Amino acid sequence: MIKDSFSPVLGQPQAIELLTQAVKQNRVAPAYLFVGIDGVGKTLAARCFVELLFSAQTGNFPGLQNRLRQGNHPDLWWVQPTYQHEGKRLTAAEAAEKKLKRKAPPIIRLEQIREITEFLARPPLEAPRNVVVLESAQTMAEPAANALLKTLEEPGQATLVLIAPSPESVLPTLVSRCQRIPFYPLDTPSLTRVLTQTGYEEILQHQTVLSLAAGSPGGAIASYEQLKAIPDQLLQEVTKVPSSYSQALELAKKIAQDLDTEAQLWLVDYLQQFYWQQWHQGKIIHKLEQARKSLLCYAQPRLVWECTFIGLLTND
């Protein structure tokens, strides 16, 4: 059955129904926008949708699923945000593997959009259509988004899938040319089922991580992995308000030295949840929110944390 193609996707009945009916009725749109918080199944659903599109008319011939997962199907172009490093583009996973220090998040670049245009200039080789998937479409700068707009206006024999956290995070001109497919946070039973099936049942014992995830199993897993990557002693120290100026300054120094910017931003989120559960004090949450904004503005991390912890110490 067509819906069986989406069996790995849990807790998203509306999205599955919209996509399966489009294929069943042969009314597949030229472009889709999958929207919802990170980690609720958008990327997995995109993979299932591509497999369904490719197998609906040609048959699910042996090896199709593996070829799609490996990214070597000639009619699929999968785009991820990248970093620029020594003249090469690296995805977030590739940058992490090389242990590169990252001061800014990856983006979808204009040259990547140009590659999409070149890919779509030829007809599909095996499947009934070409398919392009853009993860984190909200990371496109305006030149890249404008270049993609031209492709969306005349996609040819193709379907494009943009994945983003919300419609507001993408240029309105792009949103208007896509059929919106909403993805929602999972309820507790679905979240528990996903974490159990994926071997992360221990996360269910970490209430702060679950609160931080807000119904996102992918978010829960990412937060748990980040939590385990923080040195135990450092984690113990940051979950207590410093008792002296020297302790506040030393703690700020450790954070700046031991954690990259991405880990520091995660730590801000974690501490907001942790401190709120402990003390329910809005001032603490506000100070941490200021720290986040400063880190995103590329302020000197050590100085940001010094000001934050001294502010907590003095309760200013």
Automatic annotation (TrEMBL):
InterPro entries for this protein: DNA_Rep/Repair_Clamp_Loader, P-loop_NTPase
SUPFAM superfamilies listed in its UniProt record: P-loop containing nucleoside triphosphate hydrolases
Domain of life: Bacteria
Pfam families reported for this sequence: DNA_pol3_delta2
A GO BP annotation: DNA-templated DNA replication
Name of the protein: DNA polymerase III subunit delta
Organism expressing this protein natively: Umezakia ovalisporum FSS-62
